[in-house]
Amino acid sequence: MLPSRLNAMRLGHARFADVVVLAPSGRVDHATAEELKTALAPHLARCGEGLDHVVLDFAGVDYISSAGLRVLMLAAKQAKAQRGFLAVAAVQPLVQEILEISKFTLVIRTLPSVREAVAAASPAGLVALERS
Amino acid sequence: MRIHFWGTRGSIPTATTSAAIRRKLVAALTQAIGRGLDTPERIEAFVDNELEFGIRHTYGGNSSCVQLDPGGDAYVLCDFGSGARAFGNHVLAARRGVPGVYHVFMSHTHWDHIMGFPFFMPAYIPGNVITIYGCHAWLEEAFRRQNGAPSFPVEFSQLGAEIRFVHLEPDRPYDLAGFRVRAKRQHHTGDSYGYRFEHAGRTVVYSTDSEHKLDDLAETQAFAEFFRDADLVIFDAQYSLAEAISIKEDWGHSSNVVGVELCQLARARHLVMFHHEPTYDDDKLAAVLAETRRFEEITRGDHPVQVSSAWDGMELDL
After folding, report:
1. Hey, is the C-beta of B294 within 8 angstroms of any chain A C-beta?
2. CA B141, CA B39: separation in Å to the nearest integer?
């Protein structure tokens, strides 16, 4: 059996003007990757030109497996196809290493902080974030 | 049991370039500055003990061919890539004309896995017996077609050795060549098959040209069982994970990251990355090895997995 590492995938959610910040937490592994994919789906559907920009706040993610990285790959592909903005922000050092070793830093934009990611996404989003 | 890697490169044989050799020489001589290397013995000790692998060695460029030596008189190989040429010549020199028995387990019949056969000298010598095992219906046809016009000047029918083809069913254990052997179908164009070899309490898995679909939990679990508690897993790690699931999806190969994860799930002891990307030079392969070891370290639970990268000429004792 695959190891049971399931710790319910929680997806925090905040909106700053046209920027949606989503914050998964815990381990994104073989057991929870599909859960994350499902949770992201409605937000990614609106990630496009003239719609929302999406920032994934990874501060609470302490591990991501290949299955979780595949979910990021699919998200990046969808956002690109819809001409949307998608970035990962505030990645923990260990997860950042995983992104680099797997060459996912070439797949999805990573930014040091949520503020920088929101700023890169939209000026209106940054204004809303700073007023919040 | 001894494992000897005769060919470790994926897709097509490669050769070290003169530019790469020059870089190695410059790096070695730079490190030698001020070291007082004034005798051959000191130079050899310096090369063997102080230079990094990527400077003093090359990973080599022959395509897939791995020998499993359980200690008997017969020879056991996985695949007939271009590494089989060096193996055949080595054996002929060692046997001094005494006929031999060869058992060869084929992952599949793509060209890089059969191209060593026309240059496998034991096939030309009467008295040798070569048994080729595989799960593909077209196994024999692939070898016969390669050895003949317009691809090769020597027809298969002219080969002097006794050559047999044996069809195996996947997921069924066989007692062959001193091993308990089981094949498993793998995701690759035209299918490929991995082999789990067990002998005297030791287990080696040969799993090359195998793509792993990360959204298929049942498949992940099936491979974890196939690799379960193996002493050695020889694994197709041709691409980075990002490549394997994006621009090279469905190209039939896997990554270092998935290799580590499967060995962790299976509690296998030693992962050997194999079927190296032909565009990678020694520096790149050394970097991939360092990154993979780091990945294993930072994702390790209670089960460490030793990580190596195969090179032509590497030997491991289990």
Report:
1. yes
2. 56
